[in-house]
Automatic annotation (TrEMBL):
Membrane topology: Multi-pass membrane protein
Membership in a protein family: Belongs to the SURF1 family.
Stated name of the protein: SURF1-like protein
Entry's localization field: Cell membrane; Membrane
Spans through the membrane: 17-36
Length: 270
């Protein structure tokens, strides 16, 4: 093809074809990178599923053994079942806005400080309650067990906008938040708060409210691998499509040139 660029392939030097060729050259590496991005998401999902499966299958350990004030929860400790002994501090309870239950209903998660025997605090997400009043008013919350108890839950890392996609809106009504942050809770309570929080799994609430958060799904790996393969197939198809268009353009131009030459040849013969 290069040897004939000054002939039938001269159209490749036109503005339209130069732009099309440059776009084609840009699309190929872009699609390859998108494929690798989906592959990395697939690998992350597989690794997270293993962490969740291993954590849920492990025996519970004291929360203090995996977390401390100001400490970030390690990735391998996510969803690990932990226990804590102490009492709930309902006077400083908060709710997390715009959370859904398993049926997709919008309500609140109940965030209750749990004071350990040594005075430190563990933040406990006691579960979901429906929005039972005006959004500007603090909702009615079923009381937890009173006195000294032992709670069990899944250990979770502090929530961030980057990880959750939830904007940390400021200026909300009193005792309402958008994200769970042990650092913010420590500032609010004026106490030492263990890093992260737990999603309570036991004891079960009386009257089934708050509604406990179910175990996370950890068998589905999602469509990311399929998407990665699709992007790579697209990247392979782009140059093939470019070649097909080039050949079609060359054929159309050749046929048009032949059609223009035919009347001239006939006139010369006469």
């Amino acid at each position: 093809m290069p040897s004939t660029v000054n002939g039938v392939y001269r159209f490749l030097l036109t503005r339209q074809w130069v732009i099309l060729t440059l776009v084609t050259l840009a699309l190929i590496p872009t699609m390859i990178r998108l494929g690798y991005w989906q592959l990395h998401r697939h690998e992350h999902k597989v690794a997270l599923n293993k962490v969740i499966s291993d954590s849920l299958a492990a025996e519970p350990v004291p929360a203090e053994s995996l977390s401390a004030p100001g400490q970030h929860i390690k990735h391998d400790d996510l969803y690990r079942r932990v226990t804590a002994k102490g009492h709930f501090d309902t006077a400083h309870e908060e709710v997390i806005r715009r959370r859904t239950n398993s049926d997709g209903e919008v309500g609140y998660h109940v965030l209750t400080p749990f004071v350990l025997d040594d005075g430190r605090v563990l933040i406990v997400n006691r579960g979901w309650i429906p929005a039972n009043g005006a959004q500007t008013a603090f909702p009615k919350i079923p009381a937890p067990s009173t006195g000294e108890i032992t709670v069990t839950g899944r250990l979770m890392a502090d929530e961030t906008t980057a990880d959750s996609g939830i904007k940390n809106v400021q200026g909300l009504p009193d005792r309402q938040v958008m994200l769970i942050s042990s650092e913010q809770q420590a500032q609010r309570l004026g106490k030492q708060v263990l890093g992260g929080y737990i999603e309570q799994t036991a004891p079960e609430p009386k009257g089934d409210s708050p509604e406990l958060i179910p175990d996370p799904e950890h068998s589905d790996i999602g469509p990311h691998m399929a998407y990665a393969i699709q992007w790579w197939l697209f990247s392979a198809g782009v140059p093939v499509g470019w070649v097909i268009l080039v050949r079609r353009e060359r054929r159309d131009r050749t046929e048009a040139a032949a059609a223009e030459a035919t009347p001239e040849t006939a006139a010369a013969a006469v």
